[in-house]
Design goal:
Layout lengths: L1 H126 L9 H6 L4 H122 L1 H7 L11 H9 L6 E2 L7 H5 L2 E2 L1 H10 L9 H4 L4 E2 L10 E4 L7 E7 L2 E6 L3 E6 L3 H6 E7 L3
Parallel strand pairs: 1-2
Antiparallel strand pairs: 3-8, 4-5, 4-8, 5-6, 6-7
Helix pairs in contact: 1-3, 1-4, 3-4, 5-7
Amino acid sequence: MLKKGIVVKGILIVGLLSSLTVPTAFAETTNDLQNQQSQIQEERSTIQSELSEVEQEIASVLDELDQLTEQIERVNQAMKDNEEIIKETEENIEAANEEVEILQEDITDLEVDIDARLDLLKERANSFQKSGGTLSYIEVILGSKSFGDLIERVFAITQIAKADADFIERLETNKAELQKKQDSVEKKLTELNEMKTELVGMQHHLEDQIEQNEELKKELKDKEEQNEELISSLLEQDNELAARESEIRNRIERERERARQTETRNQTTSTSSTSTNNRQVAIPNGTVNDVINAGKKYIGNSVYVFAGGRTSYDIQNGRFDCSGFVRWAFSQVGVSLGYSTDSMTTAGRQVPASEMKPGDLVFFNTYKTDGHVGIYIGGGKFIGSQSNTGVAIADMTRGYWRDHFNGRVVRVIE
């Protein structure tokens, strides 16, 4: 009788300790989850601030692009105007060259006329001399037969000389005028050539400016694309954090529900309190084999899709990622798990890898710690949705999966 009393007291003490331990464990877990939630909220707040800054920077870049586009249009118009002026200047240069050539021909013709008139004067002077003789101009005059003949000769020579002198003077005057006009045209031609040189130089400067503006425009476009990519990345991070925050809230609710259920069981009998720590995390309506067999039907007719397995369409068409498949498989026996590998690491109790058995969750370090999860089926193999095969059975005792198995094993069903 004494022995029986001791046993009963022991059971009552264990039950009492269990009733105290569960709320404490729940409080610690909840506090930890709430701390994680607060940290995520801070991270999301930081991301939102960064998003606001990047959006402002994009707006500034767009303003710069608009201003630069207007500047490029102005420079393009200036180049067109400059090209028209260069074209007009080239036409003026060509006309001036033609005018110079014509004036040069006129001057040459005048020079020929002057030389011809000088030759004619010589011939006229010689006509007053004796044929083959060497009489001078004076001798011609002195050789007159009479005074009247002298007068006639002198008058004739004077008139011829005067006429020839006037003609030569006119030619010389015309030649001087032509030369003056030619000098003026050549000066204009020089100015036009200098103007063309300046315009061509300006055109090169404008072309360089356009090239620089286009480079700057490209840099601004690249900056805009980088900012858009950054926004996309920040939004993706924010969505991921939002999903984690939602998962944490769900976990907190699950912990509270578990605590309420545990407290209810503890209040029923002290014996149930004693066994609480050794029961499964979830109360399934099937066995581990049911979980494994449910998953096997997708072998060979499924595909890996990131975030797959969350909708009825995905499930009907065999579209799963690793955590989506594991969650679906356990839901077939009424066990609810989180959507992420992180949440599944705390979905049950941790057991040593040496003690793992079919139905346990096994984790692998892939792109991150605990980045991949599968369901152990025994014999060193697990079933899961792999990125290269979809749902398939893989060997974790060799090759890639052996090298990436991190030793974490979580038992969801006892």
